[in-house]
Amino acid sequence: MKVTRLDAPLGARITDVDFGETPDEALAADIRAIIHQHQVAIFPGQTFNAKQQLAFTQALGPIRKRKLPDDYIVPASSSETPGIAYVSNIRDENGEPTGVIPDGEMWFHHDTCYTDAPDKFTMLCAIAVPNNGGNTMWCNMYQAWETMPEDLKQTIRGKKALSVYDYATIAKPNLSNLDNIEKAWQPCVVTHPQTGREALFVNRLMTCQVEGLSIEDSATILDPVFDHAEQRQFVYEHEWTVGDFIIWDNLAVTHARTHFELGDDRRLRRSKVSGDKLVA
Ligand SMILES: [Fe+2]
Description:
Distance between the termini: 34 Å
CATH class: Alpha Beta
Number of helices: 6
Structural class: alpha+beta
Bound molecules: fe (ii) ion
Number of domains: 1
Strand content: 25-35%
Helix content: 10-25%
Number of strands: 16
Strand order of the largest sheet: 1-2-3-14-6-16-4
CATH topology: Double-stranded beta-helix
Order of helices and strands: EEHEHHEEEEHHEEEEEHEEEE
Largest sheet: 7 strands, mixed
CATH superfamily: Clavaminate synthase-like
Radius of gyration: 18 Å
């Protein structure tokens, strides 16, 4: 493998490796180390299929197979291989999306931070990419925390915050009634279990309340934190090419998606490695 650090706040591009063959434990350990060091690992030109991606994911750690809410419509193509989902705006003959979270812009977030054990790694393989937009952005949350002004740090240090997600929308959910949506309290700042570094662990899409404060007062505290974290100097934006396979460290970065049009086909194959309960 050849590892080239990106000229960006995070990320490395890794060539001279083919994941058609499932990595052995030594290679899997190298790949984990690259992800932990660079937060985002980009492997261009991969041609593997869903089964091979799943075998790869298993080599890195336990596969995330989460049960979705009963009323959530899972596209048929996502249920063929458990552990694999497609993120896609492509419609079938009935006009139904063939993938999850199909359309449009998505704000910065940590995957499944609204559960007790957020995902460790998320990975996406590009099968179809739009002509315009639909880029993925990652934000380096180590740097976001390290550079945060002390008075802003004081507002959240040592506190927990509530993260929520409503599968019915890709926007912020209706916060007036949180009874029936998934939610979890997480430390605002986590110590990464592998790197030992502190990372900011709140995000604009899902984090809505700081412990001890109302939702309204929490917004007053959290909005400047989000504004600080999402500055361009901490962000790498990736324009997808078919065959790009990208893995990221979900405890060290947030990710977001830029706008793209319906009809401008986008299809990414997603799998995840399960995580553990977080440590403040
Ligand atoms: Fe996500």
